[in-house]
Specification:
Blueprint (H helix, E strand, L loop, with lengths): L9 H20 L3 H23 L17 H12 L5 H11 L6 H4 L2 H11 L8 E6 L5 E8 L8 E2 L3 H19 L6 H11 L15 H33 L2 H6 L22
Parallel strand pairs: 1-3
Antiparallel strand pairs: 1-2
Helix pairs in contact: 1-2, 3-4, 4-8, 7-8, 7-9
């Protein structure tokens, strides 16, 4: 499909997103909250443009049932993860795809997907535009059990620390709610059920009607809590990412270090139960 003249490509949008994220951090470090707010608004708009370029328009409320096999499984998983914007477990990935896209992801196909992706990368590195890879634990830089990410994401986004499960949950809630709102009209029952699962675990996100969630309210409540956790989580992830770039090879930065623990110091800290190599 041809692209209209002047419309940025997904690669160009990804570059701009990275620039804006860095600019937001610089503004926050300088104490310029006004500039940071403006940059964050532009960042969100650019992320929405990237979503639209990669995912297309949100699915309509009424979808035809029974459509399967429209895309290869890895592409289906990639679409769901792109919409979530954070590491996710296969069950959530399947729920997101079923709610927002035509068809379903067969659960049996997800079991060996990450191993297949790692085998493909080690056989022919970077031969594919993207790989479905592991989230890395912040302390050991080992593969986090049951969490998938996308190789084209920044390394910091693919690392999980103590606060990351909550920040990733809130990030996903915002993105799903915004995507549902852009579809117009009333979300489909599948989307409503998915949004309710998020809203029922976020203070202030429930409107009072059990089983339904208003997308704008959900997004606002998730952003409010995310503002509390984002910065400490970002610092932990960035420190771990710096260690990973220094100490891991290309394959290990995507799929984790299985042969050794890559800790932040020479002393052995007490286990915090965060990792499961």
């Amino acid at each position: 499909m041809s692209r209209s003249p002047g419309v940025p490509t997904p690669d160009e949008l990804e570059t701009r997103i990275a620039e804006l994220r860095a600019a937001v951090r610089r503004a926050m470090a300088a104490g310029d909250r006004g500039a940071a707010r403006g940059l964050r608004a532009e960042l969100r708009a650019t992320e929405r443009a990237w979503d639209d370029a990669v995912l297309g328009a949100p699915a309509p409320a009424a979808r035809a049932g029974g459509e399967r096999g429209l895309l290869p499984v890895r592409d289906q998983v990639h679409q769901a993860l792109t919409l979530l914007g954070a590491p996710a477990a296969p069950k959530l990935i399947g729920s997101v795809y079923a709610a927002f896209f035509p068809g379903e992801i067969p659960g049996s196909r997800l079991t060996s997907l990450r191993r297949d992706e790692e085998r493909s990368f080690r056989t022919a590195p970077y031969a594919r535009p993207y790989y479905l890879c592991a989230a890395l634990t912040a302390d050991l830089l080992a593969p986090a059990r049951g969490l998938l990410t996308v190789s084209t994401w920044p390394l910091e986004q693919r690392i999980v620390g103590p606060l990351s499960p909550r920040t990733d949950f809130l990030t996903a809630a915002v993105r799903l709610a915004e995507h549902a709102a852009r579809g117009g009209g009333t979300p489909s029952p599948d989307v409503q059920r998915l949004l309710w699962r998020f809203a029922s675990n976020i203070p202030g996100a429930v409107t009072g009607t059990v089983g339904t969630a208003e997308p704008a309210r959900l997004a606002a409540a998730a952003r409010a809590e995310l503002d509390v956790h984002r910065e400490p989580d970002r610092r932990r992830r960035e420190a771990a990412a710096a260690r990973a770039r220094e100490r891991l090879d290309d394959a290990e930065r995507l799929f984790g270090s299985r042969l050794r623990a890559v800790r932040g110091s020479g002393r052995r800290p007490a286990s915090n139960g965060e990792t499961d190599p």
